[in-house]
Amino acid sequence: MYTDSAYYHNRRSGFKDKTHPLFVESCGTYHLFTVPKLPTHRPKGRLDYQILYIVSGKGHFFIQGEEKTISAGNMVIYRPREEQRYYYYGADQTEVFWVHFTGNDVKNILQNHGITDDLHIIHSGTSLEYKHLFTQMIQELKLCRADYEELLINYFSQLLISLHRVLLGKSTRSHQLLANEMDAAVQYFHSNYNKPISIEAYASEHNMSISWFIRSFREYTNTTPAQYILSLRISNARTLLENTSYNISEISNIIGYDNPLYFSRLFKKQCGMSPSEFRKQLP
Fold first, then answer.
1. Whole-angstrom Cα Rg for the chain
2. Which of 77, 104, 206, 248 has its CA 20 to 30 A from that of 150?
3. Helix (H, G, I), strand (E, B), or coil: what is residue 11?
4. What is the pLDDT of residues 1-54, one digit of tens each?
């Protein structure tokens, strides 16, 4: 299992902040591979709010006493003192990001972004922008550089704005059908990113013209299918570099590239350094 998380002043239990309208206190991610099951149960909830974003796979959540299977492309929100009970299975290879936040005006801020009190599941769609924002929050909480608390609020506010735009746009049936098509494509790419993927073949098999598919995918995820697949491969390469002892050739093969030199060039173009340099600078 891959995990990465950070906490404000290492406070893991959660707290209620009354001095700021909005305050981000912790953020993290899990990616299950071999762990059979990862459960969480907080019968009395926490003092803060939590949003969980399912990137791939699925999670099983108890919401108001009812068990629901939440697939990738959705977010779940828990409010203060709500029972939190959910679990993931390693067989699903679930990847999830989470953030805990508090403040004296959170309820109004959420409502202003379309997240009403009765909303527990947010059909967000899948976007690399979400993942980027969560990753940036984790990094800021770890490094604690100047003005990082303010920057955390900025990243979290960007996340809320993105969700609000999605919620506003999902009022039409045509948009929902498009979302379903693009979510299916995203899940296919997550499951097959390390294999040869033909964008043209995928579009044809799903009765879509290649131009319409690329344009629609870009509108939905803010990137093209090819760029999305590349980002998945590089993201997983970073995880392997950080958490395994595989050499560069082995990692290249695992994520779908037969030529390690070609992989290294792509990695450097995306990350600003070679895979070897990336590994050397790890703490």
1. 19
2. 77
3. coil
4. 778 899 998 777 778 888 999 999 999 998 887 788 999 999 999 999 999 999
Q: Which helix (H) or strand (E) covers residue 126, if one does? A: none
| Residue with token string 């939590």 | 50
Cα 247 versus chain centre, distance: 27
Amino acid of residue 148: Y
CA triple 250-2-73, angle to 5 deg: 105
Helix (H) / strand (E) containing 58:
strand 58-63
Residue with tokens 């093969």: 253
pLDDT digits (tens, 9 = 90+) for 78-115: 999 999 999 999 888 899 999 999 999 999 999 999 99
Residue with token string 């990862």: 38
* pLDDT tens per residue across span 172-188: 545 667 777 888 898 89
d(CA 212, CA 199): 12
Number of neighbouring beta carbons within 10 Å of residue 239: 18
- Rounded Cα distance, 204 and 222, in Å: 22
Angle at the Cα of 127 from the Cα atoms of 15 and 160, rounded to 5 degrees: 40
> Are 128 and 223 contacting, i.e. CB atoms less than 8 angstroms apart?
yes
Q: Which amino acid is at 228?
A: Y
